[in-house]
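Quick one, C-alpha cells below:
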C-alpha cells in the first residue's frame, strides 16, 4: 500500500471541556493528532446540539495549519457548504441519509475547495453508498448511533468497513464512535485508516500515549 491510504488519528473534541476548545484542540495536536474531527450537530438530524461555522472560523484563526474534518450531523447538509469552506474547513463529511442529491452535494463541496466525506449511520446498508464511492475522498462508517460521545463501539459495523475497503482500495475509510485501544485492531484489520477517537483520547490523562497506541495499530495494516 505504498501510495495508498495512510494511518491517521483524528481526536474528536466532543467530550472535552468545550469552554476551552482552543486549548483542548492544541493539546490534541501536541499529543500527535494527525487531524481534528469536529462534530457539528443541529438538533434535527441528531437529538443534540454542538457548534457551527462561527466557532470553527474562530478556531481556525488560532489554529492555522491543522486539517479540520467536519462531521456534519445536520438535516440539510447542502446549506452549510459555503459557510464551512469560508470558516476554513478542509473536509466536509455529510450523512448520506440527509442528502437529497448526493452527486450534486459532492460537486458543491469540491467546488468550495474542500474534500468530500460521506457518512453512514449504523442502520444504513453499505450498498446505499457504493454508487458514490468514486465521488468521495473519504467514507465514514459510524460505529455508534450519531449524536453523543462516550457510547459503546459497535463491532458489527466491521463488515461494512471490509466491504468498502474491498470496493475502494484507495479511498480513506473512517470509523467514528467508541473507538479505543480495545477495538482498534478490529477497525484496522477491517480496512479503516482514518480513526476518530473521542472519549478514549480526551478523557485520558495521557492522550499522547493513547494516540500513539492507536496509530501503531493502524500502521501495522497501513505502513508508511
Ligand atoms: O460523531 C460522534 C458522535 O456522534 C463523535 O465523533 C464520536 O462519538 C466520538 O466520540 P467517542 O469516541 O467518545 O464515541
Ligand atoms: Fe463524529
Amino acid at each position: 500500500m505504498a501510495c495508498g491510504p495512510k494511518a491517521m488519528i483524528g481526536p474528536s473534541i466532543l467530550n472535552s471541556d468545550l469552554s476551552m476548545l482552543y486549548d483542548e484542540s492544541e493539546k490534541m495536536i501536541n499529543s500527535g493528532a494527525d487531524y481534528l474531527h469536529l462534530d457539528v450537530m443541529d438538533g434535527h438530524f441528531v437529538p443534540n446540539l454542538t457548534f457551527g461555522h462561527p466557532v470553527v472560523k474562530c478556531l481556525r484563526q488560532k489554529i492555522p495549519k491543522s486539517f479540520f474534518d467536519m462531521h456534519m450531523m445536520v438535516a440539510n447538509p447542502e446549506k452549510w457548504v459555503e459557510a464551512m469552506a469560508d470558516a476554513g474547513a478542509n473536509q466536509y463529511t455529510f450523512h448520506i441519509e440527509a442528502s437529497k442529491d448526493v452527486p450534486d452535494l459532492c460537486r458543491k463541496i469540491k467546488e468550495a475547495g474542500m474534500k468530500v466525506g460521506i457518512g453512514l449511520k449504523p442502520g444504513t446498508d453499505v450498498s446505499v453508498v457504493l454508487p458514490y464511492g468514486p465521488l468521495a475522498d473519504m467514507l465514514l462508517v459510524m460505529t455508534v448511533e450519531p449524536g453523543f460521545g462516550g457510547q459503546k463501539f459497535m463491532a458489527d459495523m466491521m463488515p461494512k468497513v471490509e466491504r468498502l475497503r474491498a470496493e475502494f482500495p484507495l479511498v480513506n475509510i473512517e470509523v467514528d464512535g467508541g473507538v479505543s485501544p480495545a477495538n482498534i485492531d478490529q477497525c484496522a484489520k477491517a480496512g479503516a485508516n482514518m480513526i476518530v477517537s473521542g472519549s478514549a483520547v480526551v478523557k485520558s490523562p495521557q492522550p499522547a500515549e493513547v494516540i500513539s497506541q492507536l496509530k501503531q495499530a493502524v500502521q501495522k495494516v497501513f505502513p508508511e
